[in-house]
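Predicting holo structure, 1-deoxynojirimycin bound.
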Amino acid sequence: MKTIKAIAIILAAVVLSAFSWKTPVYKDASQPVEKRVQDLLKRMTLQEKIMQMNQYIIGRNDNSNNRGKVVAKIPPEIGSLIYFYEDPETRNDIQKRAMEQTRLGIPVLLGFDVIHGYRTVFPVPLAQAASFNPGMTSKLNAIAASEAYSAGIDWTFAPMIDVCRDPRWGRIVECYGEDPYTNSVFCEAAVKGFQGKNLSDKGTIAACLKHFVCYGASEAGRDYVYTEVSDQTMWDTYLPPYEAGVKAGAQTVMSAFNNINGIPASANRHTLTDILKNGWGFDGLVVSDWDAIAQIKLNGMAQDAAECAELSVNAGVDLDMKDNAYAEHLEQLVKEGKVSIKRIDDAVARILRVKFRLGLFDDPYRENKPQEEVFMQQESLELSEKAAAESMVLLKNDSSVLPLRKGAHIALIGPLAEAKKDLLGSWRGKGRADETETLAAAMQREFDGRVTVVEGCSFKGEDRSGFAEALQAAQSADAVVLALGEKSGWSGENASRANIELPEIQQELLREVKKAGKPMVVVLFNGRPLVLTQDEPMADAILEAWFPGTRGAAAVAGTLSGRYNPSGKLPVTFPAHQGQIPIYYNKRLPARRGNQGYYFDVTVKPLYPFGHGLSYSNFESSPVTLSADKLSKGGKITASVTVKNTSAVDGAQTVLWFISDPSCRRVTRPEKELRHFEKKIIPAGASETFTFEIQPERDLSFPDSQGTRFIEAGKFIVSACGTQAEFTLE
Ligand code: NOJ
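Done. Tokens:
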């Protein structure tokens, strides 16, 4: 018996040593990631390293802003690809070539824009922010991740967290609004949703924080243009969501298109290396945005592609998205001593690290399951409807015209009544128009077929030939629902609008239908705040539905009928006039008050402020109370409000908590700054207490212009629900 045991031990030792002799450390899944990265790096030639630093595209790209040169013969050693296919077959072929036909067998990282859903499309990010329910965003992104994963994707270029205060900029639709805190909280939720608990688990994909940085400050809301941002504003406003995303474990960051104070974001060593990598300890990879390396030349900083590559890699961009600048020039730049091998090794280590963490070396292939088992699952569709309902903002509801009376006959009028694709919004992943229900269909179901549907007019143009039929339908109905707004392509990348009112023809339709004298409900589908000052008086109720996604129509219909009680609040200010832009709640205080410093031709107030949103319930809140009115730097106090639902309808209420520092000696602070929010369902007649535990280091400290946080003793104000309380930090 003893001899058998001894033989077994010897045999096991022989097998083990043979294995470790044959299997390089980087291929051994039991080794720590960092050891594997360093082992692989040691084995790579310069050419192999440079190939890792390139991303090409594969498949048909239907994004008109990003149509690029497709590299016909993709080398199997390529580091990354943007993957436009919708099934894992091509992926598996790509990985097979990479694993079996290359010297080292390094898997390819496959990325795609999974922004608000993959095949099941959820509300656009701006709408998700209106829900003030970040937990929901985590769930939506987990579903998006699992659909995308099944299609062969490892990595999404999301979340987009560019704080935006200019609604003319089309990309406002992709972010979480005008407030840095809201963007930070939703960023963390989004990253956790995509990446799950463990990045190497099945169904998770790597997230990408974009577009680093200050892209949301694009001058006058035009895309791809200059951004002038002071260091203080960068730290106060544009950097916090990125810092939150890095802390949440986001594996990748995308460098932006914009020129920041004279230095293009993708050539900006200060932001990419000093702040992101050295300052925050980000150890994942930085990918350039599409053409962002080549655009350094267009920005006026480099004379040719080689210089672009040099500036970009030295600034800290590790992976070249489709520009081919690294593939073509890095080797020469290294030979000339313009780019150090140390920098190349750092970039490649970052790329490999992400691949190891995703588990790609150990399991590069995907199971090819039938589409009906992985896309558009019942639970995903239900969540698509629920999320859309939670994202909607009831802007106005005079005389409680909503919810619509049971049994009412409704005229549904407008260019969005039968829209499909336009309900999905920009960056709709692989969402399909033919899998999207129209508002007309959803309302017929919700209102038992008592809906007359008339288009009335198109999105824009001069054709008024449908007006008569629209008016007639309104006259014969008990109530009118007008479905107005933007086409999905009117917001998003390269989709700025100088005039953010509804197009004139839609405003005219509204005025025409108003002649019927029936209760008028306007449902808006759009990706940005609109200036509604002309239209607002015509409508008894206005429901902001944004671009609500695959099952958004059912959510609108359900909200109109009262099956859903709206609970969204605006994550962004709706201006009353275009000339007010930029207009946002957390502005610094003016030097004069009273009637000075105002416009003399229009109001200075927005039409709807940040945080505005009505409900079918009525809520009354108590004044803010504090557990103490003094605290020390290491202490805590709790602020509370009690909100009572005084109506007969259950409803959800969100309490937004703001901090103000009315006299800050180091640097003046905005009038108020959101620091905490909480949403609760309050049953009819019941009360709920909402609390905010104020922690000085977290809630009362501010960055200086170099990003160093400081905390000053003195008076502070905490406010919520229109009331406030003062306290002293000692
Ligand atoms: C350009 C966009 O700016 C970016 O957001 C996107 O991720 C890339 N193209 C890839 O499609």
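The chain has 21 helices and 28 strands.
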